[in-house]
Design a protein that fits this description.
It contains eleven helices and 27 strands. With about 525 residues, it is an alpha+beta fold.
Length: about 525
């Protein structure tokens, strides 16, 4: 297919022309100590009325379902600016650097996109994001796919690799296999994990007593070597990671890890290593450690008391993070870390480094600090984590009901929602077992403190088991009835299924092979 491309610098140099995109396209331009202004490529692309369009969201929480050519993406439109500023809604994703035209038939995404008609996919994808995130914008009204690089303001000298694109068509497996083979990216592990997370029942209201109660319940249902993960709430404040909250965990986190090991499980711990809330000692005592933009601290969001982003170019920040991970692994003895809100590392780039390159460097830093300890990534721009984390979230947080409260529908695309999580599990299914083992978030069997219907709980558990490599619940298994235990064993057996296919053309249907049989299930 024909591609019309253009690159301009702020010094006035323009390079433009056309070329063919068959399987790969590499645009390299000579520049002489210049600053990149814009890079774009345009392809004429027709789509059928019933064709599904997927545009990958900026980070793992970003809702990105399959669209049609009549849809549009709202962004933050309709939210008063004073509320956006107060709650830092624009800090969670691409809102502060990407346009949301809110025009019917205009859709955008990052790093890759696909167009699907039945089981036939047309995949357009980046082969590398070091020189800027690759943005795809489809305009159904004009039948154009525009590809842009997030490289504005980058200084370059010599041969500049402006854009590396890949195209494939065929089945879902065929196009994703070809893309990851071309990038030479493989998952670090094929070992799936199952177990428990404290978050979606107790949230931050955890303490030693609660954790011990849930741990005792897990012994009767989980297998030796499963994961028992303590989520947010163990720390005094987000950003203060060197000690546990003395009121909630007076015995300390080493005792907790030891008790988890004694029960036969792997011990996991949640951290947000690049974030610190306003009330934390880290923020109050070290204000120079944090990213500023135009003289103001960049606020990553409104969780907790509002939180800010650590600057990985500050040597004391690196020293602090080394101390944190040494304590978590070497002193306390945790086996796995869930690392959350990672987008905070790179809300901006500089004239020396793109936003994407900074995020890649932050991910590489975490890999170095964690060594061989498994990482479960979360809240991270998607492509920089490929091949770097053992496990990674592919959706927003689920909720205890189907789609949260009505007024929550008006905020950002990264909001918690079981419905939105299901959309992402389906649309990002191609990442599982290629980029990493996917985390579709937790499922529920319990009846108390959960408003999902029985069918929604059943369908979510089946989808999680089939489409991910992380199979966690936040229930207290000690409260399970015999029927719930039977259900758990049944759902867990599905994690061994192979050749999983998901269709959402008419409802949601999954097809898979297990025990020499092919099974088809209708969900939701």
């Amino acid at each position: 297919m024909n591609v019309n491309y253009r690159m301009s610098t702020m010094e006035g140099t323009v390079s433009e022309g056309s070329c063919q995109l068959d399987e790969e396209m590499h645009l390299v331009f000579p520049v002489h100590d210049e600053t990149i202004d814009s890079i774009s490529a345009v392809i004429h692309l027709e789509t059928a009325d019933d064709e599904k369009i997927f545009m990958n969201g900026y980070q793992t929480w970003t809702h990105c379902r399959e669209y049609t050519k009549r849809n549009r993406i709202r962004g933050l439109r309709g939210i008063p600016r004073r509320l956006v500023n107060r709650y830092a809604f624009d800090g969670y994703s691409d809102y502060h650097f990407s346009e949301y035209p809110y025009s019917r038939g205009v859709l955008h995404g990052w790093s890759w996109c696909y167009f699907r008609k039945g089981n036939f996919y047309r995949l357009f994808a980046s082969l590398g994001e070091q020189n800027g995130y690759t943005q795809f914008i489809y305009n159904a009204n004009e039948s154009t796919l525009t590809i842009r690089k997030d490289s504005h303001g980058l200084k370059a000298d010599g041969d500049f690799a402006a854009m590396d694109l890949f195209y494939a068509e065929g089945s879902e497996d065929a196009v994703y296999d070809a893309w990851f083979a071309k990038m030479d990216i493989h998952p670090i592990t094929n070992e799936k994990i199952a177990g428990y997370s404290s978050w979606y029942n107790r949230y931050q209201n955890i303490n030693e007593k609660a954790i011990r109660e849930d741990l005792a319940g897990c012994v009767n249902i989980f297998e030796k070597g499963d994961l028992f993960q303590i989520d947010d709430g163990w720390e005094p404040f987000v950003g203060d990671w060197l000690e546990s909250d003395p009121a909630k965990f007076p015995d300390g986190m080493k005792v907790m890890a030891d008790e988890i090991h004694a029960a036969g499980f792997k011990a996991g711990l949640w951290l947000a290593p690049f974030s610190a809330e306003e009330k934390s000692e880290t923020f109050r005592n070290h204000p120079d450690w944090f990213i500023k933009h135009e003289g103001e601290y960049f606020k990553g969001g409104s969780n907790w008391s509002g939180f800010y982003c650590l600057d990985i170019d500050h040597p004391e920040v690196i020293a602090y993070l080394k101390q944190v991970f040494s304590r978590v692994f070497d002193e306390w003895g945790f086996d796995l870390v869930k690392l959350d809100f990672l987008y905070c590392a790179a809300p901006y780039g500089s004239d020396r480094e793109t936003r994407a390159a900074r995020m890649i460097r932050a991910v590489d830093l975490l890999r170095e600090l964690c060594g061989n300890h498994p990482i479960l990534g979360c809240g991270v721009p998607v492509m920089p984590a490929f091949g770097k984390f053992e496990y990674c979230r592919i959706s927003n947080d689920v909720t205890l009901d189907w789609d949260d409260k009505a007024y929550m529908h008006l905020i950002h695309r990264e909001r918690p929602s079981t419905k939105n999580a299901v959309d992402n599990i389906i649309s990002r299914h191609g990442l599982n077992g290629r980029a990493y083992l996917s985390d579709p978030d937790v499922f529920f069997l319990r009846r108390e403190n959960c408003q999902l219907t029985d069918n929604q709980k059943y369908s979510l558990a089946v989808l999680d088991a089939l489409c991910g490599g992380v199979f966690l619940t936040s229930d207290d298994p000690g409260s399970y009835t015999e029927e719930m235990k039977r259900q758990y064993r049944l759902y867990r057996s599905l994690t061994k299924a192979e050749n999983v296919r998901v269709s959402s053309d008419s409802g949601i249907t999954v097809v898979y092979d297990l025990d020499d049989e092919t099974t088809r299930r209708r969900l939701f």
